[in-house]
Specification:
alpha+beta, two-stranded antiparallel sheet, globular, monooxygenase, EC 1.14.14.1, unspecific monooxygenase, iron ion binding, iron
Length: 451
């Protein structure tokens, strides 16, 4: 399969064509290995939710295996994955209910972002950098307890390495490397840069972990690293304990990789869509004025009183289809699925596009329309087809955090600024720029006019 075909193989259009010919479950050969594709809500739900345990493996991702060696949450399997995921979810929950809970941190970051946007004085700017800073800083405050100034040198290097790794991992060349792993060791290319970046991040994190060890108070954990070190002390008598420093560094790396670029890209795409559809923006800003007003920060309690804003954010995530296939799954044992026998270890790809763009659930799925998530009375309407974070056992561990960030950051921006486009809304291009893994918005500029 040639490179361009390989790059596009996961897009909804091709998946649609294959599913018409072969049904909702079919096999593609990416390189020399068979990959089972699941198309449509019924097949995805049956595999990832109803038979979640059997489909809970992480599929083949040779480049990640080479660098991360099976540590952390995202690319691990078996008992290690279960332990790390359970710990991560529990710790995020603990930090959410702690003395300075996560909502406070996100609200503070949203205000810092507004102050930074005020400095543009309404002149045209590309929002990419500044929208990356906010989610990255939220992760920093969860992991290290403190946020960084947007001009802090250490923070900028850290963010640059994380962003560069996500970009390279998403590139078409990396998809080729993952399909033909023998290329990894013998070919020059951007994949070697990832190894350097990961080593830099690892040594930076190990230094931070060392500082935490020296100031640790087991009765008063401050952040993610503290919780991990306390857990490590509790289980260090268990021979098979998964709580090594290697696993901590890799889990933090996962939190940065998964929690920064995806959220900042969604925010960037959301602003582009709000420029394209000023009538939607006007309705959202009217709701913010009515429910929140101008004199306090938006909070999560407001969301239940803001059905249109909630629907708009859900529709952004549905429409942009950020990760059309999510990350590959694998079956954990020989599995009889529908009329097929899938051998243990086979990679399985779920087409999230086919679920998010299902025309029975979302009339005119190619249109951006918040009413997809509203009922006849204008109240918010939930949908089982809303799967931008994937679903089942491998659903994104940071889903709750990401949803909180999207709501608080977008409402805080719209509470404080009028968004002004440099071109007429009709001329705004919202076509995604596909790379090998995610759908990115095309580059654009806008003006943040203070209200």
């Amino acid at each position: 399969m040639e490179m361009e075909t390989l790059r596009k193989v996961t897009t909804s259009c091709l998946s649609q064509q294959f599913s018409k010919a072969y049904g909702p479950v079919f096999t593609l050969y990416l390189g020399s290995k068979p990959t089972v594709i699941l198309h449509g809500y019924e097949a995805v739900k049956e595999a990832l939710i109803d038979r979640g345990e059997e489909f809970a493996g992480r599929g083949s991702f040779p480049m990640a295996e080479k660098i991360i060696k099976g540590f952390g949450v995202v690319f691990s399997n078996g008992n290690r994955w279960k332990e790390m995921r359970r710990f991560t979810l529990m710790t995020l929950r603990n930090l959410g209910m702690g003395k300075r809970n996560i909502e406070d941190r996100v609200q503070e970051e949203a205000q810092c972002l507004v102050e930074e946007l005020r400095k543009t004085k309404g002149s045209p700017c590309d929002p990419t950098f500044i929208l990356s800073c906010a989610p990255c800083n939220v992760i920093c405050s969860i992991i290290f307890q403190n946020r960084f100034d947007y001009k802090d040198k250490e923070f900028l290097i850290l963010m640059d390495k994380v962003n560069e790794n996500v970009k390279i991992l998403s590139s078409p060349w990396l998809q080729v490397c993952n399909s033909f792993p023998s290329l990894i060791d013998y070919c020059p290319g951007s994949h070697h840069k990832i190894v350097k970046n990961v080593n830099y991040l690892k040594s930076y994190l190990l230094e931070k972990i060392k500082e935490h060890k020296e100031s640790l108070d087991v009765t008063n954990p401050r952040d993610f690293i503290d919780y991990y070190l306390i857990k490590q002390k509790q289980v260090n008598h268990i021979e098979q304990s998964e709580f090594s420093l290697e696993n901590l560094a890799s889990t933090i790396n996962d939190l940065f990789g998964a929690g920064t670029e995806t959220t900042s890209t969604t925010l960037r795409y959301a602003l582009l869509l709000l420029l394209k559809y000023p009538d939607v923006t006007a309705k959202v800003q009217e709701e913010i004025d009515r429910v929140v007003g101008r004199h306090r920060s938006p909070c999560m309690q407001d969301r239940s009183h803001m059905p249109y804003t909630d629907a708009m954010i859900h529709e952004v995530q549905r429409f942009i289809d950020l990760l059309p296939t999510s990350l590959p799954h694998a079956v954990t044992c020989d599995t009889k699925f529908r009329k097929y026998l899938i051998p243990k270890g086979t990679t399985v790809i779920a087409s999230l596009s086919s679920v998010l763009h299902d025309s029975k659930e979302f009339p005119n799925p190619e249109m951006f329309d918040p009413s997809h998530f509203l009922n006849g009375n204008g109240n918010f309407k939930k949908s089982d087809y809303f799967m931008p974070f994937s679903t089942g056992k491998r659903i994104c561990a940071g889903e709750g955090l990401a949803r909180m960030e999207l709501f608080l950051i977008l409402t805080t921006i719209l509470q404080n600024f009028k968004l002004k486009s440099l071109v007429h809304p009709k001329e705004i291009d919202i076509t995604p720029v596909m790379n090998g893994f995610a759908s990115l918005p095309p580059p654009y500029q806008l003006c943040f006019i203070p209200l």
